[in-house]
Amino acid sequence: MTQHLPFPNNKVAVVSITRHGIALAGKVVAALPGATLFAPEKFHREAEAAAPGAFACFTGKTGDQIPALFAAFDGIICIVSLGAVVRLIAPHLKNKESDPGIVVLDEAGRYAIPVLSGHLGGANALAGVLAQTLGAQQVLTTASDARETLAVDLLGRELGWTFEASHDEIVRASAAVVNDEPVALVQETGSTDWWTRHANGRSGSLPANLHRFDRLEDIDPDAFGAVLWVSNRSLPDTLAERLSGKKVIYRPTAASVQ
């Protein structure tokens, strides 16, 4: 399955601080045309050889580069140890809605580990790309991906859908899905062919705790821990209060409805 990145390749930075890591970074940049390799100035020659015309070198501490990388890039691949990356990025974290997706790739290219913003930030998808292009094993720790169930904040993303929900509603609905509570999935419009392409791809059937409906008026909101509503209608006034705090509304694009 082709992975869908939520950002263009030119918004991807590949950071490496070792000679062998820079060689691997060159392969990553080749697999993601438009991405940029960042390396210490002392490895200028190696960086130029690995990613000609697609590299930038820095002087000083690697940690001093983090604010600029966060500001300029949506996806960051670090060929640096996991512990070092945690220490480097910790002072700069804000929230899952705005932090970039960050993936750690070991120097041998064997494991691609999403560290930050696996879903909204696209780190899981980025790890999937590395798995496809380098043969790395993606190490996914998000509950919905580990169990191959529905990821509430990714439903329809590959189709260009957007969602309307508060942070608390997303958290509540996500918890209901992964904890096997009854969840109503009401789809009134948009392509129904999304499950196998969902998130990093799903091979099994839709989980049993997800109950499908064709119309919002057909459900009893009190019977479900969360309600996922795919529609371009306005929320009916008669259901607004009963769905408060437990609904996520998805808006398919016009192209995906046709």
TrEMBL record:
Residues 67-145 form the Cobalamin synthesis G N-terminal domain. It holds the Pfam family CbiG_mid. SUPFAM superfamilies: CbiG N-terminal domain-like (SSF159672). InterPro entries: CbiG_hydrolase, CbiG_mid, CbiG_N, GbiG_N_sf. Residues 151-252 form the Cobalamin biosynthesis central region domain. PANTHER family: COBALT-PRECORRIN-5A HYDROLASE. This is Cobalamin biosynthesis protein CbiG. It comes from Parazoarcus communis.
